Amino acid sequence: xxxxxxxxxxxxxxxxxxxxxxxxxxxxxxxxxxxxxxxxxxxxxxxxxxxxxxxxxxxxxxxxxxxxxxxxxxxxxxxxxxxxxxxxxxxxxxxxxxxxxxxxxxxxxxxxxxxxxxxxxxxxxxxxxxxxxxxxxxxxxxxxxxxxxxxxxxxxxxxxxxxxxxxxxxxxxxxxxxxxxxxxxxxxxxxxxxxxxxxxxxxxxxxxxxxxxxxxxxxxxxxxxxxxxxxxxxxxxxxxxxxxxxxxxxxxxxxxxxxxxxxxxxxxxxxxxxxxxxxxxxxxxxxxxxxxxxxxxxxxxxxxxxxxxxxxxxxxxxxxxxxxxxxxxxxxxxxxxxxxxxxxxxxxxxxxxxxxxxxxxxxxxxxxxxxxxxxxxxxxxxxxxxxxxxxxxxxxxxxxxxxxxxxxxxxxxxxxxxxxxxxxxxxxxxxxxxxxxxxxxxxxxxxxxxxxxxxxxxxxxxxxxxxxxxxxxxxxxxxxxxxxxxxxxxxxxxxxxxxxxxxxxxxxxxxxxxxxxxxxxxxxxxxxxxxxxxxxxxxxxxxxxxxxxxxxxxxxxxxxxxxxxxxxxxxxxxxxxxxxxxxxxxxxxxxxxxxxxxxxxxxxxxxxxxxxxxxxxxxxxxxxxxxxxxxxxxxxxxxxxxxxxxxxxxxxxxxxxxxxxxxxxxxxxxxxxxxxxxxxxxxxxxxxxxxxxxxxxxxxxxxxxxxxxxxxxxxxxxxxxxxxxxxxxxxxxxxxxxxxxxxxxxxxxxx
Length: 751
Ligand code: C2E
Ligand code: MG
Ligand code: MG
Fold this sequence. Notes:
This protein has 751 residues and is an alpha+beta fold. The protein contains 26 helices and 32 strands. It starts with a helix and ends with a strand.
């Protein structure tokens, strides 16, 4: 049929005929008035023909065995077949068994047709090799007078476009349009469902909350389109890391979520988190520009850290918040103290707003010493906050808060002006180095501020050194070069701070006019470890810096052996406790006035091992008693405890670190009230600077012992009772095997 034919035929007529046919097929046989209202058979056949040739719908009929006895020509052709070859084949083969909505409910087409009853508007997909076709199909059984099934009469209309647009809009609500990952709505639904099911099946599930570090900076410098592209690429990397069965979703902005079913080994979760961070932190190319972002990950595991999805999400959120505050680029496990920490940080932020006005900020100065002469060449100004109640708060804590809360600009301005004033008053020409946050650096007014600070203080520009971290390059915005240019023009010196902690691209060194590279303390310290390659890398950095006419400072040298190694690597300057801690203005004035700028390094001979000196109370469970002891040292493989007298070597304990963390340990050394323990399963890093156990006591196990099913409480293993409850329970109280010394605490009986 031609287009003209189509146009000649009134639309309403076609619709009416389609409806008419359907009504005919669907109408019950005994519906006499309808039958009577039908046109005579000849006209009816004509109408059917018109309708068929309009290709708006089609007809079909079968015999009692459901073999096709009729099918409209155009449908056969659309499926790439001849009508004659279709006749005799089963109608069931025409439909793919993906039954959709309709009167049919959830049954397959095959089952439905087997019932030989009437059906209407059943949405089915054509089963053939070609682009998808969806039909809405209706059928009416053809019954003999005796009620015998003779076959079906049926019709169908093409609903492909409808179906596709419905699918698309459902995809849009279920998946994130930009990245194609599950949307916030979808992923939270999945988490809900999974947790409900897992609670019954006593399964575990890890939730990773991921936030991109420095994404905002890139979005702001390179524009939203670049930001979108970055999000897409980051999502693809997340999908690549994800194993079968993991669910990855985007919550919006630069926040993502990963659900890992049946995962409660914190060692494995930590590996997954590390992998995610490493993948996201690889450089990206966006419109030919290279940029680098990072990721922070908060981890919560059900049922340990939350039973319901709200609870688990809140826990993962808190862990993420802590990971970001720990300095980003890290993962962090949820622990119950994070609630208090988060509250604390909020309060610190509030108090930081008024700290400058209240005169609580001051600058400490740490000498930077020439490696060859031990002579002070300058001082780094380090901001200090003396809080009236909390005491000294570390810049490691308050600087990130200030950056987040937009307080770094006024604080940084104050530090710069104050450092210039102080340095101008020093006898001699020692330099002053001031840290500049990337946020200040992006502030277009930085060169003006520096000009003003220099003019007001009268300090010579070459006595001021600005310390900048490499994160200022991450956006690679054009303003950065301009700012560098403007600062160089003023005659101030520029130092690249914390080299070795971030992406540490040597290409920054070639493109930016630095006078100095400061090699970060973590990098320097690792260099002293046997078998570590950092020493070789430092040698390369030093030669490159020399070739480019830059100085090098090794930061954080605490011991004489590291100093010796670093000096051998020909680093030009040293800053570290081995020479001096950061000092008060008055103290350095005294040194400078005396005119003796040479400092003799002093300090411990060797770096201490990686044992963390921790003085905290932990529980020791032995037989059916729980003792409290002081833990002096803990490493991944063992710990030193104090508080139990005369414990024989080989004794097995269960150490209770709190929050369901139990570790089986064997006494390897024993002296009076001190024991050296070896853990059966090594502890793992908690992502922050602490250690934790791989697995914890499952709340399901506690529930089986009669406790309410809930996330793990803080404090010690809950299935422990004191004498009073033991007696109330009629269990009595047997004698403990060990006595406790001064360093110990109470003894409780294990339930
Ligand atoms: P940074 O700029 O890398 O400063 C060096 C840090 O290493 C200082 O920590 C210093 O006290 C510490 N340090 C130096 N020698 C040793 C050592 O031998 N052993 C150890 N363990 N540490 C050593 P501090 O003062 O806590 O400052 C931490 C960071 O806070 C600084 O790292 C800097 O990034 C930031 N910061 C400090 N003051 C300011 C400021 O005025 N503005 C900005 N934007 N950031 C600042
Ligand atoms: Mg610094
Ligand atoms: Mg540094």
